[in-house]
Amino acid sequence: MRRSHDHIKIHPVGVCEKCGQNKFPHHMCLECGYYKGRKVIITKAERRTLRREKKEN
Known about the structure:
- Helices cover 23% and strands 14% of the residues.
- It has one helix at 44-56; strands spanning 14-15, 22-23, 34-35, 38-39.
- By secondary structure, it is an alpha+beta fold.
- Strand 3 and strand 4 (38-39) form a beta hairpin.
- The chain has one domain (11-56).
- It starts with 13 loop residues before the first strand and ends with a helix.
- It comes from Holospora obtusa F1.
């Protein structure tokens, strides 16, 4: 009974509206960088393409 609170919890998982990947509720999507339909961060793949375009110009 001493460690009855240490059981494993199953976290709820939602689906990103933009890309369809699994994500935690009330968190941004780590794949596309969107939260509630708006862009929050630039992902690694987008950063790579921006760097490539910058080098070509």
